[in-house]
Amino acid sequence: MRNTGMIMLQKNRVVLFKVIIIVLSLILSAGLPACSWLKDFKGGLFPTGPVAASGSHGQSYLSAGSGEDASASQDKPGEGSPRITEWETALYFPDSQAIYLVKKIKVFDISEDTSVSDKVNLCMDELKTAETGIIPQETRVISTELEEGVLTVDLSEEFDTGMNVGSSALNMVFGQIVLTLTEIPGVEKIRFLIEGKEVPEFKGLVELNRTFLREEYTQFVAPDD
């Protein structure tokens, strides 16, 4: 009886071995990854790769890439977006009696690719809305152009129609604009246009169709306390 049992056991092993050979042959003939199948079989039929999440039916999936590629993409969020940085500059405002221009430091949060035109608009918005400001708040910067250190600023007609002041106040207006905008890197001189046109004289008091230099207005800056 014992011999008979051993014979049956050996026959069963032979049959099992033949079944395995047949299954492997079918897998290979079907073009399926036999090595991966054997690896899963060896590991207890559990997947060996990384799994990011599970579906509603227990189905595993990866959200983006796998292995090192997935971790690399998670380590660099927002790659390619402009980096935000601080730009520190000086703004100039008339004092309460419009005798001196007071220098104030301002820090703007800007992106690395912020243009000169954007910086001009940031500065002009600050100058227009100042408590002691003289520039009409309706004034718009239509366009700017920087060429060889000369910044041409085209202002809207409100800069002209909304300005009803004397010569001393006009010195404050042009002085604060020129001093403020020449703080922008690369800007050395200022030219003014009104609605795209050169104006010979502004209010009959200021010669406008020329280049304005920073040195013309440094005398109006209030002395440091």
3D architecture notes:
With 225 residues, the protein is α+β, with helices and mostly antiparallel strands. It folds into two domains: 1-52; 84-220, no CATH class. Helices cover 35% and strands 23% of the residues. It has six helices and ten strands. Helix 4 runs antiparallel to helix 6 (167-181). The termini are far apart. 15% of the residues are buried.
Note the total helix count.
6
Strand content: 15-25%
- Across the major sheet, the strand order is 5-6-7-10
How far apart, in Å, are the first and last alpha carbons?
116 Å
Mean pLDDT: 79
- Overall SS class: alpha+beta
Fraction in helix: 25-40%
> Radius of gyration, Cα only, in angstroms?
38 Å
- Unreliable stretches, pLDDT < 50, 5 or more residues? 32-75
Q: What is the number of strand segments? A: 10
Largest sheet: 4 strands, mixed
Number of domains: 2
Shape: rod-shaped
The H-and-E topology, N to C, reads as: HHEEHEEHEEHHEEEE
Topology:
Elements: H1 2-29, H2 34-42, E1 53-54, E2 60-61, H3 67-75, E3 84-94, E4 101-111, H4 116-128, E5 141-147, E6 150-155, H5 158-161, H6 167-181, E7 189-194, E8 201-202, E9 206-207, E10 211-213
Parallel strand pairs: 6-7
Antiparallel strand pairs: 1-2, 3-4, 5-6, 7-10, 8-9
